[in-house]
Amino acid sequence: MVSAEEKVDLESDEEIPFSGSQTSNKMSSLSFETPHILSHPKFSASWVLRKVNRISILRSIYIVLIKAKINVLLPFGPLAIMLHYLTKKHGWVFFFSLLGITPLAERLGYATEQLACYTGPTVGGLLNATFGNATEMIISMYALKNGMIRVVQQSLLGSILSNMLLVLGCAFFCGGIVHRQKVQNFNKAAALVNSGLLLMAVMGILFPAVLHFTHTEVHKDKSEIAISRVSSCIMLIAYASYLFFQLKSQRNLYSSLDEGEDNQEDSYDDEVPEITYWEAIGWLAVLTLWISVLSGYLVDAIQGASDSMNMPVAFISVILLPIVGNAAEHASAIMFAMKDKLDITLGVAIGSSTQISMFVIPFCVIVGWFIGKPMDLNFQLFETATLFITVLVVAFMLQEGQSNYFKGLMLILCYFIVAASFFVHVDPSNDDD
Length: 433
Known about the structure:
Strand order of the largest sheet: 1-2
Number of domains: 1
Low-confidence stretches: 1-39, 256-269
Distance between the termini: 82 Å
CATH class: Mainly Alpha
CATH superfamily: NCX, central ion-binding region
CATH architecture: Up-down Bundle
CATH topology: A middle domain of Talin 1
Order of helices and strands: HHHHHHHHHEHHHHHHHHHEHH
Strand content: under 5%
Number of helices: 20
């Protein structure tokens, strides 16, 4: 048993650092009390935490890779790679790759938020949307390299649908439940600008599909690719103009109507970063690299998973892949909505959809142009109609500048309708060709 005096010494060791003449006394007492100290769980735990805090690299690893509960899914990534080479069971490889990418996408969002604490709210919101879409971008590049044009189109379409319906719906619903005694407001002007960009993206995607299905091309199978590439260049110019408009020209437009820019600035100032600036950049690079490795195995297993699970490729591409890729946006949007910061929620959810539709999709078309892949904006009639209706529904929800839990519930139910539709949808592209 440890005496009362020894317990006092142990507690004082945890709070008072060793210094001066006290060091010799403490060391003499520690020389014969070592067995008791090693068996004291509170002392050992605090000793480990002090050591970890002193070593910045270990502390950073603990915060990013161990602290979050979702990191229990990290081992599924290496397991998916092992199954790929040992069993060739594509269904399990696909499933475990999805589980392995989920925490990586969430941690990528966390590292982006930590970096945003140093860069400020406007640049931080842009970084959040950009790196939040890194998973979808990497998966699309691998699929495009393998000539899986429909997987690229459907996965990017699914990301837009998921952000606008599921992510925004869950954010509105959770924020409305937490703040059900009042009406939550957001900047209607900024929301309408994003809605306009989404409608412009629908226009760019709609015309190649109409040209194809009305059989009015000047040159069959060439005119729609040509108009897709021209439209993609125009959409990239529009997105670059939007960034200038957002970051330089009309910054006041993106401040809260009631509280000004303080609403967004406080959201970052109130949060003390847990890792340093360069650690955040380093983790962004490491996580992006690991996601790119897993994405290769994920894309290779899509067709085999579709056959083994008796599930349409369209459902996998439009519903399952975007849910994993949007893990970071989903968590961030809900968190900010529950804190009554809907301007940031819209920046994450609608801003991410705008970036995919106006930047990622046109960028994939241009990349396909350079590498000789016939990537175009013809998303087929069913997918194009789904996108068009979704943008109209979300634009109608945002026009009042207010949200509540019922609006969120309607958006979530709309997403369930979309998911059910794609579960019974057969891609007709091969038949048409």
